[in-house]
Amino acid sequence: MSPTPSRVLVLNSGSSSVKYQLLDMRGGDRLAVGLVERIGEETARLKHTPVGGESREWSGSVPDHDAALKALAAELAKDGLGLDSPELAAIGHRVVHGGKRFTEPTVVDDAVLAEIERLIPVAPLHNPANLTGIRTARTLRPDLPQVAVFDTAFHTTMPESAARYAIDVETADAHRIRRYGFHGTSHAYVSRETARLLGKAPEDVNVIVLHLGNGASASAVRGGRCVDTSMGLTPLEGLVMGTRSGDMDPAVIFHLMRVGGMSADEIDTLLNKRSGLIGLCGDNDMREIRRRVDAGDERARLAFDIYIHRLKKYIGAYYAVLGRVDAVAFTAGVGENAAPVREAAVAGLEGLGLAVDGGLNAVRGDGARLVSPADARVAVAVVPTDEEMEIATQTYALVEKER
């Protein structure tokens, strides 16, 4: 009897790129990783790395996502890992917005596709690209389960008191206006890994997760369930980010329309692409900002201070929401690598039991680790995120359950 298929291909389809990983869930092994970028251009690039082998890279015309998926499938086939393999159990897709309906990973059918499409108005930059990836994968392997894993799903456990905006209820419901949250696969993975690092079950741990990359979000996780998160209807709300403003008085928008003569599209571009760190100091790379701070650059210093001030406010707010905090976990590009950000974020919070050990915090490492003093009341952890593994894990669990 042939072994049960155990491989999962994870696809993260963006507007002009497809990131992918192939994993064997029998042992949790990564078999291949890759990226197709600049889709639609003559200078598209594909980088493919079989684990244990040498990377391959090429440039050329990739007119659309269909061509991109066929190109990555061809690269996988060169390593004996093709999409026609009987060992492939499913394809897992990252989908940014699942609204209120999708609270867990879901096998895709025509009705699911239609609902994801219906949510495009609340995720116009992401859901169309996610849909394209799913549709293309379905044509390549129509016999294979396609599973959608939603960024918003982990946050659907928020109580209404956290998810509702204080606006007219009928208007909000008519236009599906509420706080959905994003980066959910990362928050789910990191909160669970933080509990494991502490030697406890997720249901016994309260964690504040800080996902700090170019996009940034915080979550309050009580016993493995999200009870609050910083992003809202869109990924614009919350923390100061690389190019996004985060929290802001909504009347600023009306002011820019009435006094600044700006259109809705111009304001959308301002708040999403020309704000945050890049708007404050012209850089959105924390490494460069820290270099400028150390060189005495006052604009960079102000940008860093605003970033930390907002971060510290959310730590304090989520401490109050949770009542008891066992750990604060830093993850993603900035959270995992920027020791000055971790140090500054908890500085002055010793009364809440938060502190970092300077020596531990300065050490770079690949795995999950504690950077707080041994006697700290609240653990401060660095936990590398692995959204692809989380998507693969959820996808495989669903397929096995329905097998």
Automatic annotation (TrEMBL):
<feature type="binding site">
    <location>
        <position position="19"/>
    </location>
    <ligand>
        <name>ATP</name>
    </ligand>
</feature>
<keyword id="KW-0547">Nucleotide-binding</keyword>
<protein>
    <recommendedName>
        <fullName>Acetate kinase</fullName>
        <ecNumber>2.7.2.1</ecNumber>
    </recommendedName>
</protein>
<dbReference type="InterPro" id="IPR023865">
    <property type="entry name" value="Aliphatic_acid_kinase_CS"/>
</dbReference>
<dbReference type="InterPro" id="IPR004372">
    <property type="entry name" value="Ac/propionate_kinase"/>
</dbReference>
<feature type="binding site">
    <location>
        <position position="387"/>
    </location>
    <ligand>
        <name>Mg(2+)</name>
    </ligand>
</feature>
<feature type="binding site">
    <location>
        <begin position="333"/>
        <end position="337"/>
    </location>
    <ligand>
        <name>ATP</name>
    </ligand>
</feature>
<keyword id="KW-0808">Transferase</keyword>
<keyword id="KW-0460">Magnesium</keyword>
<feature type="site" description="Transition state stabilizer">
    <location>
        <position position="244"/>
    </location>
</feature>
<keyword id="KW-0418">Kinase</keyword>
<feature type="site" description="Transition state stabilizer">
    <location>
        <position position="183"/>
    </location>
</feature>
<dbReference type="GO" id="GO:0016301">
    <property type="term" value="F:kinase activity"/>
</dbReference>
<keyword id="KW-0963">Cytoplasm</keyword>
<feature type="binding site">
    <location>
        <begin position="211"/>
        <end position="215"/>
    </location>
    <ligand>
        <name>ATP</name>
    </ligand>
</feature>
<keyword id="KW-0479">Metal-binding</keyword>
<dbReference type="InterPro" id="IPR000890">
    <property type="entry name" value="Aliphatic_acid_kin_short-chain"/>
</dbReference>
<comment type="subunit">
    <text>Homodimer.</text>
</comment>
<comment type="pathway">
    <text>Metabolic intermediate biosynthesis; acetyl-CoA biosynthesis; acetyl-CoA from acetate: step 1/2.</text>
</comment>
<dbReference type="InterPro" id="IPR043129">
    <property type="entry name" value="ATPase_NBD"/>
</dbReference>
<feature type="binding site">
    <location>
        <position position="12"/>
    </location>
    <ligand>
        <name>Mg(2+)</name>
    </ligand>
</feature>
<keyword id="KW-0067">ATP-binding</keyword>
<feature type="active site" description="Proton donor/acceptor">
    <location>
        <position position="151"/>
    </location>
</feature>
<dbReference type="Pfam" id="PF00871">
    <property type="entry name" value="Acetate_kinase"/>
</dbReference>
<comment type="function">
    <text>Catalyzes the formation of acetyl phosphate from acetate and ATP. Can also catalyze the reverse reaction.</text>
</comment>
<feature type="binding site">
    <location>
        <begin position="285"/>
        <end position="287"/>
    </location>
    <ligand>
        <name>ATP</name>
    </ligand>
</feature>
<comment type="similarity">
    <text>Belongs to the acetokinase family.</text>
</comment>
<feature type="binding site">
    <location>
        <position position="94"/>
    </location>
    <ligand>
        <name>substrate</name>
    </ligand>
</feature>
